[in-house]
Amino acid sequence: MKTAVSIPDEVFTETERLVRHLNKSRSEVYSLALAEYVARHAPQCVTEAMDRVCATVGEETDEFAAVAARRTLERNEW
Length: 78
Fold this sequence. Notes:
Elements: H1 9-22, H2 26-40, H3 43-57, H4 63-75
């Protein structure tokens, strides 16, 4: 999709620096930036992303971490 937008000169200048630094096209950088912005402002997308991360973590117990946590809790007053 091709579109035209107006942006402040400072944003354009900083984006041009980023384009050179990342060795990406201007279109790619703007597209990535907009995708990130949309994801941050769409709560359902954030929830879905967190669900995907949690699904990959698994339910394996780290015995060392469990023992360390238990000992730490036992030494503290509630």
